[in-house]
């Protein structure tokens, strides 16, 4: 059971951040820890603790330093716009806090970071039932109800917590988001600099350090079930694979100009290492605006121009493929090569192509089986799908009847 080395709070197994103060916890095992098996208490609208409420259970309701805790700030970000607190939503955050997330919500309300945010329809019904005026802006409706019946507001929404960040908390979350963006910018710059010099191991270590310190909000259960977390691999193996990517030239990108390859490699690598590509840093101006492309095409078609290519300034487009599509095609190519290598290791001799996308070229390949040595390169270079080739391979197992 991890305990926080700062405040001593006992967190649930697997917690990365303290549910009380928000700092990263150390895995310290406590012999025979008590296990709480009760059901979570129903959500209530808490009141700020008085000076006499100094017991540990009460003081733990309010995070000690939510303004500097990434999990708390990430949770608050969900409430920049008013939303209803539901059990399914809270359950996702239990591992992040190491405690009942409802206690965290209660603490944020008590600490002035979250506030009630009923809908306009709710407010008008409540005003009408009290014989009060129901017109005006939402803030006016809330103020009118608070002045007329503050206790009724609290009771009315005890079972339905519609919350939003207070203005002060919104500013704190805004600054945190700006800091996160700045941290990504710095990490991307350092990773790109290392990659340009082909210092692949340095780029990987820089990215690993960034991702270790970055809090990732929990995913919905359905999305989380589809995510496969790869096992840690030696940095030498990862370095070799990344270096190989910088030598790959998929045929579907055969019209790529020489100076564009470097940017494409960088964009793909940044996306893989940091979890998000940075095309504005890696391949700015990769494809020109449609109007510019049409203007150049008009110049090329001009009969008065003897050298159409000289009439138009140098173009950077690959057909009509944008930077993200080109990056995705490189990623598909890398995966396809890895899949084929894995099939060979397992002794598989044949594979069937599953044509996805709908263009004539991909449809012609659909359900066709090839020996691995004769398998067409994927993504398929003749593909004309708007999103690029998405064809896949399926191994033909030795005992499978074709």
Tell me the major beta sheet.
3 strands, antiparallel
Q: DSSP strand (E) fraction?
A: 5-15%
Which spans have pLDDT < 50 for at least 5 consecutive residues? 26-62, 288-293, 305-319
What is the share of helical residues? 40-55%
Shape: elongated
Number of domains: 3
The count of helical stretches stands at: 18
The helix-and-strand class reads: mainly alpha
Overall average pLDDT: 77
Number of β-strand runs: 6
Q: What does the radius of gyration come to?
A: 28 Å
Element order: H for helix, E for strand: HHEHHHEHHHEHHHHHHHHHEHEE
Tell me the strand order in the biggest sheet: 1-3-2
Measure the end-to-end span: 53 Å
Topology:
Layout: H1 56-59, H2 70-77, E1 83-84, H3 87-91, H4 94-97, H5 101-110, E2 114-116, H6 120-129, H7 138-148, H8 150-156, E3 162-165, H9 167-196, H10 200-213, H11 221-226, H12 235-245, H13 258-274, H14 279-282, H15 290-300, H16 308-311, H17 323-345, E4 350-354, H18 360-365, E5 369-371, E6 392-396
Antiparallel strand pairs: 1-3, 2-3, 4-5, 4-6
Structure write-up:
- The protein has 402 residues and is mostly helical.
- The protein folds into three domains: 56-171, no CATH class; 186-339, no CATH class; 346-402, no CATH class.
- The chain has helices spanning 56-59, 70-77, 87-91, 94-97, 101-110, 120-129, 138-148, 150-156, 167-196, 200-213, 221-226, 235-245, 258-274, 279-282, 290-300, 308-311, 323-345, 360-365; strands at residues 83-84, 114-116, 162-165, 350-354, 369-371, 392-396.
- Strands 1-3-2 form a three-stranded antiparallel beta sheet. Strands 5-4-6 form a three-stranded antiparallel beta sheet, with helices on one face.
- The protein is elongated and about 80 Å long.
